[in-house]
């Protein structure tokens, strides 16, 4: 039955005043009456909470108005489903976007409180891992900025991925206690609670008209409870919602068991439910880990879809208008089970026939692919899905039958093509391919860079692209310039404003006006001064956290990202060893002082990635303590990489390492953030590096290595890499130093197998790209020595990064996939 629509005719409170005096008074009020502290004894974390609560009320004014406007106009909403939202700290983001940073600073000054100290206290929300989650966060902020009504849907992880610490150079994973002291930005919505089921059986029910309806009777039940966080657009243009789901048991405690003395058993159901939202990416090397991962994905997908359908019916009353009012974007394959769940909701709950439900489902869903790597294109054992989600497995089989019939009868596919497009992989253990499910159940599929999109058409989805030729398009990623320039680099923001005016803050492509000043010696000096100040800040942080002294006058060479073999941190550290050897062998040369900065987390079960972290730390220990190097080379690995750490590192970087094996990085967004902040890129022609080169000019980047086509050709020939090693004396020496235990005297064989893999197969082309990489690094040295040339190149990188804004990306999604209007401007 349609729910009664909401009518906004109740009295509304007056918006909160934004003056310094009003903020000062309200911060004191919140400190006293919400935090319960006398200002005389309040600690910094008390002031932090009070300040957030005071500003939050100004955010709520915009939040409520945004919601009322969407209900009044009936505008289409976008729903962004993502297993990750790496939003980082929200305080500076919200304060800046709503235009209250300076008034709050002045209000706190009047209370003898330092705003910067408070901002540094706020924990990072542990809701993501890497680029996928940070992209989702940038997209949400841009949707608010260009006034798209939107919800982000994800999981409220109690611990997120993990807090990374180092023990003798090894990664140690500890719980990330970001919610230990509460989260003043979120609102629990107990009324938005949905029952989620698992297991059980499916029962066919004969309807009076002779048709058959299916009823799923799960054997397990739990609740998904919503927690909402406001996401503020630039200048308060709009405030959208990030809705995160927390798993809670329907019966928190089984009293009969408790009273019988089985205290642990009485809480078993509670623990089982809460485990679903405890940790991001539970290790899936075991069947239990795989099951928990699938439970997570279905849990948040089902809750989100139930919420979407409920809201739509409440406002519009019928399901036929879903594609006109609802756009659901699947961020990678993690929420792909949503395709089957939407079909179940439409058919089993609301009584639609298959054809109508399938039409509506394809009308609302679109899917973003982020990888061409087989292990990242999720698949689940058929037996697991049949046991955990029996109704959904029936629906998947039915979808597959429809797709394969179309492929055979309409497109004339042969057996090999049929096997390729099938949702069920029949090779070995039968598995459901979630990428195929997302593809066939969506009206639009997109890649995230021009190169990635073309490779997607030719490789993983080649036959599906033949079957549905108009579905794939490209939407090159972008980053929000608010967080990644205006907020994290205020010195550069002020300098740019002084030189070209403030218009770029509202239209980031106006940064192109800096091109005219790239050769100006005065502007170059000012630009370099800002960079030097940022490097001093990073040097201080390195000293504080690692007790390693680095010079801000050195070239800061940075690689910060998830640790993975295809991202090739190993190539970087091997070249560092070769460089170290060259410095010691030729002390008479005029070497450029260099600091190599690494940061990133390795998945707990990814042994080689964890070994690369240990190798980096072992190499750092030797190089940093060798007097023969004379401080010309330093290597540091900063633990627990997160958004806040990136906000300090990126503005300080001189050189950005974007050196993935060509054809394997879908896009990258770190490359964009670095260039926006005036770092030069050393990289392969991979992902968005290709489009960045077009934007900034090949003369303003350092490109090296095999192309995607050359990588594919070498792999197809199973070429042995040993020849590349034997023909490169510097590489051969570096590999022998590592494998023989020079950097691991406590365990000389520690890296023998890791290095041996480069001789045997070298899947990621580390050995074959080494010489061109080393040559490119020496080109970097040459340009660095000509500081005027370097500064001009750095300015041009900043000047031409405007197109790589997430505002542009989201505007393209809105126009070409979601069919929703956009606009700029705000309060």
TrEMBL record:
Which CDD domains did the record assign? GT35_Glycogen_Phosphorylase (cd04300)
GO BP annotation list = glycogen catabolic process
Cytoplasm as a keyword of this entry, yes or no, is yes
Q: In this chain, where does the modification N6-(pyridoxal phosphate)lysine occur?
A: 673
* Cofactor section: pyridoxal 5'-phosphate
Give EC number(s), comma-separated: 2.4.1.1
Q: Does the keyword Transferase apply?
A: yes
User: Its GO CC terms?
Assistant: cytoplasm
Q: Name one GO molecular function term.
A: pyridoxal phosphate binding
Family annotation (Pfam families): Phosphorylase
Q: Where in the cell is it found?
A: Cytoplasm
| Top-level taxon of origin | Bacteria
Keywords recorded for this protein, A-Z: Allosteric enzyme, Carbohydrate metabolism, Cytoplasm, Glycosyltransferase, Pyridoxal phosphate, Transferase
Q: What does this protein do?
A: Phosphorylase is an important allosteric enzyme in carbohydrate metabolism. Enzymes from different sources differ in their regulatory mechanisms and in their natural substrates. However, all known phosphorylases share catalytic and structural properties.
This protein is called what? Alpha-1,4 glucan phosphorylase
Species this chain originates from: Arsenicitalea aurantiaca
Q: Please spell out the taxonomic lineage of the organism that makes this protein.
A: Bacteria, Pseudomonadati, Pseudomonadota, Alphaproteobacteria, Hyphomicrobiales
């Amino acid at each position: 039955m349609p729910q009664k629509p909401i009518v906004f005719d109740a009295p509304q409170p007056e918006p909160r005043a934004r003056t310094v005096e009003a903020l000062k008074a309200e911060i004191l009020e919140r400190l006293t009456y919400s935090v319960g502290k006398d200002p005389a004894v309040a600690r910094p974390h008390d002031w932090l909470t009070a300040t957030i609560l005071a500003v939050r009320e100004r955010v709520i004014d915009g939040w409520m108005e945004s919601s009322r406007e969407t209900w009044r106009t009936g505008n289409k909403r976008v729903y962004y489903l993502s297993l990750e939202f790496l939003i980082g700290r929200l305080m500076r983001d919200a304060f800046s976007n709503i235009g209250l940073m300076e008034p709050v600073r002045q209000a706190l000054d009047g209370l003898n409180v330092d705003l910067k100290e408070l901002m540094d206290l706020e924990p990072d929300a542990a809701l993501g891992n890497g680029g996928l989650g940070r992209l989702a966060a940038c997209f949400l902020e841009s949707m608010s900025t260009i006034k798209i009504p939107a919800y982000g849907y994800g999981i409220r992880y109690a611990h997120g991925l993990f807090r990374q610490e180092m023990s003798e150079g090894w990664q140690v994973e500890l719980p990330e206690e970001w919610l230990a002291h509460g989260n003043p930005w979120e609102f629990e919505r107990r009324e938005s609670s949905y029952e989620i089921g698992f297991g059980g059986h499916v029962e066919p029910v004969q309807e009076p008209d002779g048709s058959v309806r299916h009823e799923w009777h799960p054997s397990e039940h739990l609740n998904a409870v919503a927690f909402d966080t406001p996401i503020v657009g630039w200048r308060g243009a709009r405030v959208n919602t990030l809705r995160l789901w927390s798993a809670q048991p329907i019966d928190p405690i089984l009293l009969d068991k408790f009273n019988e003395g089985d205290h642990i058993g009485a809480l078993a159901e509670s623990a089982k439910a809460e485990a679903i939202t405890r940790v991001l990416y539970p290790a899936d090397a075991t069947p239990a880990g795989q099951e928990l991962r699938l439970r997570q994905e279905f849990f948040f997908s089902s809750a989100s879809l139930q919420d979407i359908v409920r809201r739509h019916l409440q406002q519009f009353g019928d399901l036929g208008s879903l594609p006109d009012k609802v756009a659901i974007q699947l961020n990678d394959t993690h929420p792909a089970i949503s395709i089957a769940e939407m079909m179940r909701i439409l058919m089993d709950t609301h009584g639609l026939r298959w054809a109508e439900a399938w039409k509506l489902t394809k009308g609302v869903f679109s899917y973003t692919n982020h990888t061409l790597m087989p292990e990242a294109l999720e698949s689940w054992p058929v037996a697991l899905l049949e046991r955990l989600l029996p109704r959904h497995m029936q629906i998947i089989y039915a979808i597959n039958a429809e797709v394969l019939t179309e492929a055979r009868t309409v497109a004339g596919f042969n057996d090999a093509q049929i096997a390729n497009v099938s949702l069920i992989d029949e090779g070995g253990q039968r598995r459901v391919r979630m990428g195929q499910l997302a593809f066939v159940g969506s009206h639009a599929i997109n890649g995230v860079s021009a190169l990635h999109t073309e490779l997607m058409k030719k490789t993983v989805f080649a036959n599906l692209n033949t079957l549905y030729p108009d579905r794939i398009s490209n939407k090159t990623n972008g980053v929000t310039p608010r967080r990644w320039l205006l907020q994290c680099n205020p010195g550069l923001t002020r300098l740019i404003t002084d030189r070209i005016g403030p218009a770029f803050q509202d239209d980031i492509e106006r940064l192109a006006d800096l091109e005219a000043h790239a050769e100006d010696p005065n502007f170059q000096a000012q630009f370099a001064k800002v960079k030097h100040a940022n490097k001093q800040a990073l040097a201080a942080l390195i000293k504080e956290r690692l007790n390693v002294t680095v010079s801000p006058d050195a070239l800061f060479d940075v690689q910060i990202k998830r640790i993975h073999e295809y991202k090739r941190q190993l190539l970087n550290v091997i070249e560092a060893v070769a460089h170290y050897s060259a410095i010691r062998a030729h002390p008479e040369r005029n070497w450029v002082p260099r600091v190599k900065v690494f940061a990133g987390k390795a998945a707990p079960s990814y042994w080689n990635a964890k070994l690369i972290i240990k190798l980096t730390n072992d190499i750092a220990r030797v190089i940093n303590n060798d007097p023969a190097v004379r401080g010309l080379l330093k290597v540091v690995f900063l633990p627990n990489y997160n958004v806040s750490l990136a906000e300090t590192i990126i503005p300080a970087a001189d050189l950005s390492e974007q050196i993935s094996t060509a054809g394997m990085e879908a896009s990258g967004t770190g490359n964009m953030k670095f260039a926006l902040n005036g770092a030069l890129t050393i990289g392969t022609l991979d992902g968005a590096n290709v489009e960045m080169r077009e934007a900034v000019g090949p003369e303003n980047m350092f490109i090296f290595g095999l192309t995607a086509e050359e990588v594919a050709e070498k792999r197809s020939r199973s070429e042995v890499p040993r020849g590349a090693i034997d023909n490169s004396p510097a590489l051969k020496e570096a590999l022998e130093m590592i494998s023989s235990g020079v950097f691991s005297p406590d365990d000389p064989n520690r890296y023998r197998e890791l290095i041996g893999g480069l001789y045997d197969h070298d899947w990621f082309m580390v050995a074959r790209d080494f010489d061109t990489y080393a040559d490119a690094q020496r080109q970097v040295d040459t340009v660095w020595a000509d500081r005027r040339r370097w500064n001009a190149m750095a300015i041009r990188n900043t000047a031409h990064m405007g197109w790589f804004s997430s505002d542009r990306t989201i505007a393209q999604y809105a126009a070409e996939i979601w069919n929703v209007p956009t606009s700029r401007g705000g309060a």
